[in-house]
Amino acid sequence: MTRMWERAVNAIDRGARLQERANAWIAPFLMLLLPVSALALGLGGSGPTRYSAGWVEALGLSLTVRLDALGLVLVGLIGLVGAAVLAFAERAEDAGDRARLRVLLPAFALAMSGLVLADDLVALLVFWEATSVLSFLLVGGTGQDPAARRAARQALAVTGAGGLALLAATVLIGLDSTTSLSGLLAEGQPVGLAAGLLLVIAAATKSAQVPFHGWLPGAMVAPTSVSAYLHSATMVKAGVILMIRVVPVLPDVALAVLGTMGVATAIWGGVVALRQRDLKRLLAYSTVSQLGVMMSVLSVGTEKAILAAVALVIVHALAKAALFLGMGAAKAATGTRDIVELSGLARRHPFLGVTFVIGFASLAGVPPIGGFVAKEAGLLAALDADVAFVSLGIVLSATLSMAYATRTLRLLVVRWGVVASRGLGAGVVLPPAALAAVALALGVATPAFDRVARRAASSVAAGVDAYALVLWPGLTTALGLSLTALVAGAMLAVVLPLGRPPRREAADVIEAILDGLGALAARVGAVTGAISRPYTLGLIIALAGTGILASLVGSDLSGDRPSIGVAGAAIAVAIAGAAIASAAARERIAAAMALGGVGLAMAGLFVLVGAPDLALTQLLVEFVVVVAFVLVFRRLPRRFEASRGRSRFPRAVLAVALGTATSLLLLAATATPVGAPPTDRLVAGALGPGAGKNVVNVILTDIRALDTLAEITVVAVAALGVAALARKRGSA
Amino acid sequence: MVSPIVMVVAIYLVAAGHNAPGGGFIGGLVAGAALAMRGMTGDTPSRRTGQALVGAGLATAAAVGLVPALLGGVALDQATTTLALPVFGQVKAGTALLFDLGVVAVVAGLVAIVLDALAAEEVTA
């Protein structure tokens, strides 16, 4: 028996291990379906395909996606990077993180795919917010680590604010013309200034532009896979992608703001990256800088600039994801992320070394890697349009990129350090290497890169076919500037000593603002909570009474009312007596009983006037309330505390006033019939379509079922609230 | 001993509700009282049951409402059919009854949770 049991347990264990191994393959494989299907659609389809599902037709809202070339290329990118990241995550992340990542990363890929395919600003907004929420969940992790909670809160606050800006922009644009992106481009009219600026702000928060960039380096507390996927390769590109989609219809002022912000971000990100010793934070600031480059290139606004931005998005996603995963692998092998401590890593892990070389060379724009081709195109676009400050920004950021790339590579690859490390499995090393290989291929096989990027850009800019991405542009100003940047950057790396990372970071400012808001909320809560409960209750009663009286001014109270007869009069006396008894009672339980008596007598009145339903309900509610009272009173003193005279008097006044007001309200309500009573119509409806003789119940479950659904939702929420409160009490 | 009888009353109230006084809210109140009673006398925790009821009830009502919409009709529409059951004779059954059952469950769950919470508070204090 025991042996059989053991064998069964072993079999289950084996099954679980087998499943674990299968998972490691299934998730990345499924993710690979994205680029494959995108490719198939891109090759097979002729022109973009639209799918539209009605949403709120009364408001003209629909969820529209459009499979255009830009969307398909980006979906392919999302799937390709996603597959590599998932494959890496299955082998390198903690077992606890893996299960969560296996669910959340594909969910994120779905949201991100929706975002790049959306052809409607409303649909885009929905996916946009979905990525924010998933980012929050992924950064926050289990919620146990305070640093992770802090970073997740910051990211959500900043990107959430951007989401609000996008919502406002969507509303403004929808009022003006259409929220359809292709419709906007077809009209060709620039959107309003306010809407344009709001769009730029939304993009700036998501894509970490100065001064909204603080959350991105903070988000680096997340596991490697999350940082690689969301905070370098895909999600932070959402702002850039939004700008690519709308840049032809942005007003000039918004473009100028975008350009200024982009240039500032490109330079500032590079400067701070140069001061980092933590490889992950260095990469994060490098991402900030590169996003700035993309934004500043886009601000040029020409078709050439759009092509360059698309190329930059593609190549940066590949190279940066490769670097992040490589960093994660290095951390797994050595236990450190400090670039000085990682000296000589490439000797022990040549594959990793090659990955780092390709990745950093792509960032710095060294030929013949894809990054060079894209950056060159951006520089050409800026020079052609004579936007000097954007050209300068690109060159300066390229110089800084070359500087931190050279410094890192010198330590990791060139120096013969002796970092202690353990061996790495192929599953950890191959995913980053594969991505780096693609980034390299984009440069070496520039014509292919050119075709993909140009087709993607043509979704937004029709005339883009006049330009091309090239590896060898000839001896142009752009090439000269690029080479100067490379040489200057390399020299900067040699000359400049490794500084200290800045003590105060932008994240601290965000945190201070959030803390301030929290403190303000606590103050408001303290002030309102400190007022004693009788006063708060009294205030509510006084306001209600005043409101009722105010609404009654000038109304006619006389009217023809049916008599309730002798029995009715007797019940009315009973109600009044019970009410007085309740007010006069010295013991709590007696007061509750008397109050129950009021309810019972009322039920009798209902029966008398022909509302058995109401009577039944009244009766049952009364019983349950009395039971609740009894349960509560077991915890309270038996008798009411002797109240002081001066506090009793105002209460009595309030009570009498509210009672009078309510009575007057009822008199007024029964005095003037507004129209024919709806009873006949309702009864007919109940017996006909509703098919029931209990009219009240048919109204509840059929005719006004939506109201009932809403009501029970409220009831359910109340139940949850009670359960939560009771649990808190119980545990305290 | 009492709570099964109360339960039967609750079921009668719900079933009768279509044509006679009764219905989901009332039935729910009675059923909730029955649950709470069981919770107070025995050691069956009624709070968990209550929470499950609230969730299941809301889901049932929403699902009953959504099905016609998915079938291409108007949301919250109802269908009726007449069944011949052995004991009850000719019974008209509509999807409104299912909806009402959702209401019953939510209300019963709420009552059970509240009464249980009040009773439990007294114990822990």
- Give the integer mean of the pLDDT values of chain A: 83
Series of secondary-structure elements of chain B, N-terminal to C-terminal: HHHEEH
The SS-based structural class of chain B is: mainly alpha
Average predicted local confidence, pLDDT of chain B: 68
Strand order of the largest sheet of chain B: 1-2
Strand order of the largest sheet of chain A: 1-2
What is the helix content of chain B?
Answer: over 70%
Spatial gap, N to C terminus of chain B: 29 Å
- Broad shape of chain A: elongated
Number of strands of chain B: 2
The largest β sheet of chain A comes out as:
2 strands, antiparallel
Count the strands of chain A?
Answer: 2
- Which protein chains make the most extensive interface, counting residues with beta carbons within 8 Å of the other chain's beta carbons? A-B, 42 and 56 residues
What fraction strand of chain B?
A: 5-15%
Helix content bin of chain A: over 70%
Q: Which consecutive residue ranges of chain B, at least 5 long each, have pLDDT under 50?
A: 81-91
Number of helical stretches of at least 4 residues of chain B: 4
Q: Which class do the helix and strand fractions of chain A yield?
A: mainly alpha
Binned strand content of chain A: under 5%
Describe the secondary-structure layout.
The complex is a heterodimer of chains A (732) and B (125).
Chain A: H1 2-44, E1 49-56, E2 61-67, H2 69-92, H3 95-117, H4 121-140, H5 146-176, H6 181-187, H7 193-206, H8 215-218, H9 224-233, H10 238-246, H11 252-274, H12 279-300, H13 303-334, H14 345-348, H15 350-364, H16 370-384, H17 388-414, H18 426-444, H19 446-457, H20 477-495, H21 506-530, H22 533-552, H23 565-584, H24 588-608, H25 612-633, H26 645-671, H27 679-687, H28 695-703, H29 705-731
Antiparallel strand pairs in A: 1-2
Chain B: H1 2-16, H2 24-41, H3 46-70, E1 80-85, E2 89-94, H4 95-124
Antiparallel strand pairs in B: 1-2
Helix pairs in contact in B: 1-2, 2-3, 2-4, 3-4
